[in-house]
Every structure is written in structure tokens, then in C-alpha cells.
Write a structure and sequence with these properties.
- With 202 residues, the chain is of the alpha+beta class.
- The chain is built from 5 helices and 11 strands, in the order βββαββαβαββαββαβ.
- Helix 2 (81-90) runs parallel beside helix 3.
- The radius of gyration is 21 Å and the shape is elongated.
- The model has no long low-confidence stretch (mean pLDDT 94).
């Protein structure tokens, strides 16, 4: 197994708080699988903190480095989203989002003060949560006859595949993540089974 077969992420959601001249910054860090996941969490935090003046954020998803976003949400450009993303990247983690909720304290912090606050509170949140290594997986949809259920499930278990969803009728549809380092073996075994259709999720 090589290091390229794994990525590092955070194990569970966590939060931290930082105060500067009356302003309160609360960072919420959480693991995410995709942008929909992130949007749900952001909406939830906006409902929980309706009086906050800003909900700034950054996230990075996937292992190719191309899927990331940051937002200053009304703060001066580059003072919030970029420092948050910088902390995610300095830890070398992915499939992670951080939302920082700010309550205004009546004193302007200025650009350096804001950068420091967003950077510090993000660093604090990421320090308190354990990091985990996860296998890089490729998503596939399997369609098969109910009679093949046991064999398919045995392969899934044997190779540590993640099962995302499972529709069991006479005809079963299974959405799964197959570890990249075991992909050839898993596909070989699945294709060996009768009446199993294997499709890569694009």
C-alpha cells in the first residue's frame, strides 16, 4: 500500500471559539463527502446563528486538489475564506469544511486583525479533532439479482468497500466506494459473478 491510496481527514465535527475586542468567532469544522453535504451544514449553522453578522467558510473535497471553495461572506476580500482554507491545507486534510460564525463586537479589527482571528479560530478547531487516514475510493453502482446478494456482500466486506446506499428488492441496486488499491481485484471478482452489472459513477 502506498501513501497515495489514502487521504487524511477529520474524524468528527468539532468547534472552537476565539474572541478579539468584543467580536466572537466560532469555528465549526466537519467532515464532508460532497458539496451537498456542505450546503446542508451551512444552512443548519445559519439557522442556529441567525444573529451572526458573517458565516465565512472554506472547504476542500477530493484528492486531486481541484475541488475547493472559500467565502468571505461580506468581510473584506481575502480576510476570512483564504485564511480558513490555508489552515485546512496546512494540515494536509481533505473532505473537510470549516464555517466560522462571527458575532460583531462593536470594534473594527482591521484587515490584519480579521486574518488573524479567522486563521486562529480555524487552527484551534482543527487542533481539537482527531485526524484519520481513509482509503481513497472510486464510486460504483452495482445492479444484481437478489440471488447474488451473499456473494456481492462478501466481496464488499472482504475488500473493505464502503456501502453508501442499498436498495433491496428482487433486483438490488448498491452504491459503493471501492478502495483504489483493491479496485482491480474487486472488479475482477464482481465481473466474475453472473447477472451483476458494475457501473462507475462519473
Amino acid at each position: 500500500m502506498s501513501a497515495e491510496d489514502f487521504y487524511t481527514t477529520i474524524e468528527k465535527p468539532c468547534s472552537a471559539e476565539f474572541k478579539d475586542r468584543g467580536s466572537k468567532f466560532i469555528a465549526y469544522a466537519f467532515p464532508i463527502a460532497d458539496t451537498d453535504d456542505f450546503k446542508k451544514q451551512l444552512q443548519k449553522l445559519k439557522k442556529e446563528h441567525p444573529k451572526a453578522v458573517h458565516h465565512c467558510f472554506a472547504y476542500r473535497i477530493g484528492t486531486d486538489g481541484n475541488n475547493f471553495r472559500s467565502s468571505d461572506d461580506g468581510e473584506p476580500s481575502g480576510t476570512a475564506g483564504k485564511p480558513i482554507l490555508g489552515q485546512i491545507d496546512s494540515k494536509g486534510i481533505t473532505n473537510v469544511a470549516v464555517v466560522v460564525v462571527r458575532y460583531w463586537g462593536g470594534t473594527l479589527l482591521g484587515v490584519p486583525g480579521l486574518i488573524n482571528a479567522y486563521k486562529t479560530v480555524t487552527a484551534l478547531a482543527l487542533q481539537v479533532t482527531p485526524l484519520v487516514e481513509k482509503q481513497i475510493e472510486i464510486n460504483y453502482t452495482l445492479e444484481f439479482d437478489y440471488t447474488n446478494m451473499n456473494e456481492v456482500m462478501m466481496i464488499m466486506k472482504q475488500y473493505n468497500c464502503t456501502i453508501h446506499s442499498n436498495q433491496m428488492q428482487l433486483f438490488c441496486i448498491l452504491s459503493t466506494g471501492i478502495p483504489i488499491n483493491r479496485l482491480t481485484e474487486v472488479l475482477y471478482k464482481l465481473n466474475d459473478l453472473p447477472n451483476v452489472s458494475v457501473k462507475k459513477v462519473l
